[in-house]
Amino acid sequence: MQHVSWFDARTLLHAEGSLHAAATERVALPSAIGRVLAEPLKSPLPVPHYDSSAMDGYALAGRGPWQLLASQESQPGENVHRKTVPLEAGQATPILTGGLLPPGADAVLRLEHARLSNDGDLAMIEALPHFFERSPHLQPAVGDDIRRAGEELAAGATVLAAGIRLGARHIGSLATLGFDSLPVYTQPTVALAYTGNEIITGGLPGPGEVRDAFSPQFPFIIESFGARVTSTVRLQDSAPNFHHWLDHTAADILMLTGGSSTSDVDWVRRVLTELGATYIFESVAIRPGHPALAALLPDGRLVLGLPGNPLAAHVALYSYLPAVLAGIFGQPLAQLPTGTLTAAVPGYSTKDLRLIPVTIEVTPGGVHLTPQDKTRSHMLTGFASADALALLPPEGAEAEKNCQFLGLPV
The MoaB/Mog domain covers which part of the protein (predicted)? Predict the structure, then answer.
């Protein structure tokens, strides 16, 4: 049996993914959330793209006091932010936050810092001097409360690099730049099969039964990584069922939970042999999750077999699918960050690497990893409160030891 290290398993899958680079497509801006950007984006215009006011108040020209000029009366529905009145020295005009700066204006006086008065038939604006005690002329300095075009970004500046997973914050920024659609990678497709005759999908399990720990959340986790789940099925444990599903399911990646071990009722390996599959790896030297496997069917579809125990299956999912997808999307395999254990972790009876659920606390002194309890392969309570999986040697580790960890983004 081809038994590889956890690091090698991820490297092998990343390399396999790199052989199947995703195509690209353009999608509407709202549909791009969660997708991977296929090309670098450059700003098509300066940001802001015009000189504007940062406050409600008055656009000013020269020193005050200022004669107040009013623009033409606005009509219902009119965009008043575009209305301007050219100013000469000693003149002012009302302006709103974001309003176009009038020609000749060199500062903005905030509404709450101004006093309006009348000099005969003229409306006059004065700056309230106590707000400008540090100014030599007791009034706004040139440039005060003006947003200058291009002060955030120059036209042509790179906004996002290719390979970034687009989130809601990205989309908001790109909308302000005028993007209506984005170039993204097509999503690799994943078909899911849940196995195990002992699994029930609702209610309280009885003796000899186990509640389904995968189907409510696995599709969400997989799609959060950037793939698209195209089908899910629950397979009864029999060779014909496994054979038919593996042979006839159309997807880039076929993922099974359970059935990947070597007992008499685990059919995945035997069926893969019947179908002429080629193993990328047959098991991994980690705990929990060593029965995980990866294989290629003759037509190029990738099979990922996850262990049946809940924590082991989750460890395998977070370990291997992102590695494949990074290769497909042309991204490097992410480097693992490090942190310091806050408590000792005892050794284990095997010689395999261990992945232990931990919580993360970031302080000025560094990243602190607190090991969780109840972390055997069939347990999920410790995993449920974890932020990451810490990589620990089989002999365990003392408190204050530095170790790498794999983040759990969802």
Answer: 191-327
